[in-house]
Amino acid sequence: MKKKLGHKKIIVGAVIGLTLVGLFLWWLGNKVEEIARATDLNATSTETITKPASFWSNLFGDKDNEETTTRPASTKKDGVRPLGAPTVTLADLKITKNETTSSIEIYGRQLATTLKPLGTPRPNEAELLLSLLETKDETTANKIYQAGKVHLKIFNNLKTMTVPETASALHLKVVQNIAKTMVALANMSEALEDPTMAISDGLKYQVEALELFDSIAALNDYFVTKGIVFTPDDKIVIYVNVDDQI
């Protein structure tokens, strides 16, 4: 039996309220063997193929006016391998030495706006994955794919923001975490083509989501140390689905 926790709201710092949505997923691991017996699981290479950011924009159709809700055909060729996250370094960010109170406030508001898509409570993605594996319903695969599109848009926007130099390392960590959750969702959405890979990435997603929560909390602490005070209208609350057992 799966056990759900209530929303555990953690308001950290000044601009982003973090709500940790807990779901006991000990049963995810237990389901692997059961699903393996009921599904034709092909062996999957543990090697990952790292793709640049442009690949993910093409995969998810990153256009503001695009309302595509259906995932494309499987992207894997010449055997099934999980796709890896694009590499992002400080050199990829727009870093400024301008660190006035005003510039940091602007950065904080832009950060809140960028992360706002995570402000809507949504089904736990790992739970969707299990439903997909059991029902083989393409609609569920599309829901996971859509979650990946949301993460891609956040990823691209985070990379184009102007970031204060003293926040750059913390900002980079958020970008890297979003990249990893985005890729995990892409691999999870292909559960009908490769259940083994999808289950593996479902477990990885839970770990990466918790790291995302922690990295955003660290950025909140940054604003506190800088003495930045935001108005209620500036603040948002975001939801991060994680496994409370991790």
Question: Could you characterize the architecture of this molecule?
Answer:
- This protein has 246 residues and is an alpha/beta fold.
- The protein has one domain.
- It has seven helices and seven strands, in the order ββαβαββαααβααβ.
- Strands 1-2-7 form a three-stranded mixed sheet.
- Helix 5 runs antiparallel to helix 6 and helix 6 (168-188) packs antiparallel against helix 7.
- The longest helix is centred in the C-terminal third of the chain and has 31 residues, at 195-225.
- The radius of gyration is 18 Å and the shape is elongated.
- It starts with a strand and ends with a strand.
- Residues 61-80 have a biased composition (Basic and acidic residues).
- Keywords: Membrane, Transmembrane, Transmembrane helix.
- The chain crosses the membrane at residues 12-29.
- Residues 60-81 are annotated as: Disordered.
What is the strand content? 5-15%
Give the integer mean of the pLDDT values: 72
Radius of gyration: 18 Å
- How far the N terminus sits from the C terminus, by CA atoms, comes to 18 Å
Extract low-pLDDT stretches. 1-14, 18-30, 41-52, 62-69, 76-80
Q: Structural class, please?
A: alpha/beta
- Assign an overall shape: elongated
Number of strands: 7
Specify the number of helices. Answer: 7
Q: What string gives the helices and strands in order?
A: EEHEHEEHHHEHHE
Task: Please give the share of residues in helix.
Answer: 40-55%
How many domains, as an integer? 1
Order of adjacent strands in the largest pleated sheet:
1-2-7
Largest sheet report: 3 strands, mixed
Keywords: Membrane, Transmembrane, Transmembrane helix
Region (Disordered): 60-81
Biased composition (Basic and acidic residues): 61-80
Transmembrane segments: 12-29
